[in-house]
């Protein structure tokens, strides 16, 4: 779909914006009879004009306060500005304020129309034109031509049309069509026979009729009966389009300007946002830390306090990082423009962009300012880096979905940015851990294992779940824990046991002798199945120290030389192999075996036969059904 290019007029209230629009389009934006007849006016202040075989839209909003709100509300849909400056008066304070607002929301290209040229003498014209050029340079406007016009005589109107056509051929601002749908509401109507209708400019994403949406900050699902855009009923809407949504079963009284229609659960409300803020150099006073102000973003106007993170006072013309603490829930996204107005006078005193839409309140530190400056430099990628570094103390991993929700990005966009962070992020299962956190964790893991090996010289290592719990991390998934350990240098994991790579179990001389005696006592003769009780084995080898005996048995078990069975029974490695051979032979011959049969074949008691068969079942050598053991469903283990 080819997007409609949109221009927005700006300038002093008496410098001929509306007259210029009428001269360009032949249409008065305040008197569209078809809109009034339909009773569903969504294009208030919009006029349309054919250019390059297509239609462009021009927003003309009478009134200074309306201009401020509409410029912010329509900032996603506006591609270029049309700034008017009267040739007979030149740049006025309101002209400068409007130009600052245009620059604050990121509009850098457009056209400056010098109006009322028929009322100005040559000196006035030259002076006003020079003032306009200086203003454009101060605001950083690029590709901005200055054209002299008169709505009365028609001078320059065709030239201005040609300039609008030239900009239109360049195309509009890039729209985020792949992001989840987001529409800030700027109009709420209750129409007899239709119910509640809300309207706004689609900020990003597409919507197709039939899909339910979510209403924020109410966090309620709503059904959409019909959609209109630019006066036409449609089934689908795109970024930058003025659109109206008919919402059945939604009371108009519960809604207000600043509410949002969104798709999915990516977008959420927040009371604290971190921003980069420019205090206007034309502001009458400095901004004070925690000063109460009005913030305009999207279609919302909220009251809150500006917390300056690196100083107590922000002088006119200065820029820094601030946190805005709203007095009611607010919906924003990374990069959203905003304007700050004085709380009582409502005069514009500055503006900026959102860096983090879901912030936590922080203590003022200069290091934080540097961190957010990096986000300002790196863009969306920088926000993802910040999110990863803000990992809660008891967590190690963020999933892609969690990162997307925290940043209010689509998973596709999140994945794209994560790809650029490969050197800084490490994937483990479905989650990601920063290289910095992995390095810090490695030091803690190695330190914990050094202490464990020192205190437990006969143990091979520490159970992985116990290790993470000891370090204060709540991870329940064994595969995730193993994946993390495998990425830590100098540490190994076998099964669920973690140990230092260079560690060796330190047995005392008496313990080494005890190991030899235990292995000797459990050694079968030929194909014998030799089973001993633990207490009996302890008496045979002569180990009065129970704790020492347990330490050696734990060591032998982890080494695989001894197996502990149900009922405090113990066998050696060779006995296990003999039992496996007996089992395979009998299953091959009979197809099944019970403990009462296996005891006769192996020459052992029924209790011992049950213990061995149950152990082999746990190892996957049999499939037990009601006490009878069958070959496993898959191929028999070797």
Question: Quick recap of the structure?
Answer:
This protein is α+β, with helices and mostly antiparallel strands. The protein is 35% helix and 27% strand.
Question: How would you describe the overall organization of this protein?
Answer:
It is a single chain. The protein is an alpha+beta fold and 638 residues long. The protein folds into four domains: 6-170, 3-Layer(aba) Sandwich (Rossmann fold); 182-262, Translation factors (Elongation Factor Tu (Ef-tu), domain 3, Beta Barrel); 270-374, Elongation Factor Tu (Ef-tu), domain 3, CATH 2.40.30.10; 510-630, Orthogonal Bundle (Arc Repressor Mutant, subunit A), CATH 1.10.10.10. Helices cover 35% and strands 27% of the residues. It has 19 helices and 36 strands. Strands 11-10-16-7-8-15-12-13 form an eight-stranded antiparallel beta sheet, with no helix packed on it. A six-stranded mixed beta sheet has the order 2-3-1-4-5-6, sandwiched between helices. Helix 14 (509-522) crosses helix 15. The protein is elongated. It starts with 5 loop residues before the first strand and ends in an 8-residue tail after the last strand. 40% of the residues are buried. The model is unreliable at 31-44 (pLDDT under 50).
Main features:
alpha+beta; Elongation Factor Tu (Ef-tu), domain 3; 4 domains; 8-stranded antiparallel sheet; 6-stranded mixed sheet; 19 helices; 36 strands; 27% strand; elongated
């Amino acid at each position: 779909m080819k997007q409609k290019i949109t221009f927005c007029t700006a300038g002093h209230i008496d410098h001929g914006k509306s007259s210029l629009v009428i001269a360009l389009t032949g249409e008065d934006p305040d008197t569209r009879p078809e809109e009034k007849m339909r009773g569903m006016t969504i294009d208030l202040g919009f006029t349309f004009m054919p250019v390059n075989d297509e239609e462009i839209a021009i927003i003309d909003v009478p009134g200074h306060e309306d201009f401020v709100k509409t410029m912010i509300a329509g900032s996603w849909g506006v591609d270029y500005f049309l700034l008017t400056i009267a040739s007979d008066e030149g740049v006025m304070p309101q002209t400068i304020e409007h130009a600052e607002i245009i620059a604050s929301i990121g509009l850098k290209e457009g056209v400056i129309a010098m109006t009322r040229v028929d009322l100005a003498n040559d000196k006035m014209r030259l002076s006003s034109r020079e003032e306009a050029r200086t203003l454009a340079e101060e605001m950083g406007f690029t590709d901005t031509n200055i054209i002299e016009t008169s709505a009365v005589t028609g001078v320059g109107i065709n030239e201005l049309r040609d300039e609008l056509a030239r900009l239109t051929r360049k195309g509009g601002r890039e729209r985020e069509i792949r992001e989840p749908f987001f529409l800030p509401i700027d109009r709420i109507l209750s129409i007899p026979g239709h119910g509640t209708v809300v309207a706004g400019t689609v900020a990003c994403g597409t919507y197709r009729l039939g899909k339910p949406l979510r209403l924020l900050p109410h966090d309620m699902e709503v059904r959409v009966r019909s959609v209109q855009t630019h006066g036409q009923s449609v089934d689908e809407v795109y970024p930058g389009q003025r659109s109206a949504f008919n919402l059945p079963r939604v009371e108009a009284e519960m809604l207000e300007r600043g509410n949002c229609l969104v798709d999915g659960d990516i977008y959420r409300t927040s009371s604290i946002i971190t921003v980069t803020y420019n205090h206007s150099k034309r502001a009458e006073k400095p901004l004070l830390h925690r000063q109460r102000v009005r913030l305009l973003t999207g279609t919302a106007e909220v009251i809150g306090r500006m917390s300056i993170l690196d100083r107590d006072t922000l002088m006119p013309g200065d820029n820094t990082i601030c946190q805005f603490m709203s007095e009611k829930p607010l919906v924003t996204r990374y990069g959203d423009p905003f304007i700050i107005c004085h709380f009582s006078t409502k005069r514009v005193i500055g503006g900026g962009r959102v860096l983090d839409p879901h912030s936590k309140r922080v203590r003022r530190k200069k290091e934080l300012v540097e961190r957010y400056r990096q986000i300002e430099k790196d863009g969306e990628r920088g926000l993802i880096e910040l999110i990863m570094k803000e990992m809660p103390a008891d967590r190690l991993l963020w999933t892609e979905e969690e990162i997307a929700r925290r940043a209010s990005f689509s998973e596709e966009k999140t994945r794209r940015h994560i790809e650029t962070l490969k050197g800084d992020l490490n994937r483990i299962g479905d989650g990601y851990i920063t290289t910095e956190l992995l390095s810090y964790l490695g030091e803690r893991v190695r330190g914990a294992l050094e202490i464990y090996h020192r205190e437990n010289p006969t143990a091979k290592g520490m159970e992985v779940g116990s290790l993470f719990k000891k370090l204060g991390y709540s991870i329940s998934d064994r595969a995730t824990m193993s994946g993390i350990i495998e990425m830590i240098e100098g540490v190994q994991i076998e099964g669920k046991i973690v140990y230092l790579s260079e560690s060796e179990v330190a047995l005392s001389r008496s313990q080494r002798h005890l190991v030899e005696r235990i292995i000797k006592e459990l050694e079968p003769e030929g194909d014998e199945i030799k089973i001993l009780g633990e207490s009996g084995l302890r008496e045979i080898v002569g180990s009065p120290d129970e704790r020492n005996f347990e330490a050696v048995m734990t060591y032998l078990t982890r080494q695989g030389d001894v197996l502990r069975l149900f009922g405090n029974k113990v066998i050696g490695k060779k006995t296990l192999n003999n039992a496996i051979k007996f089992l395979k032979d009998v299953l091959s011959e009979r197809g099944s075996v019970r403990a009462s049969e296996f005891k006769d074949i192996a020459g052992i008691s029924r209790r011992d036969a049950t213990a061995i068969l149950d152990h082999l079942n746990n190892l996957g050598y049999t499939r037990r059904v009601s006490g009878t053991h069958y070959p496993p469903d898959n191929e028999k283990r070797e």
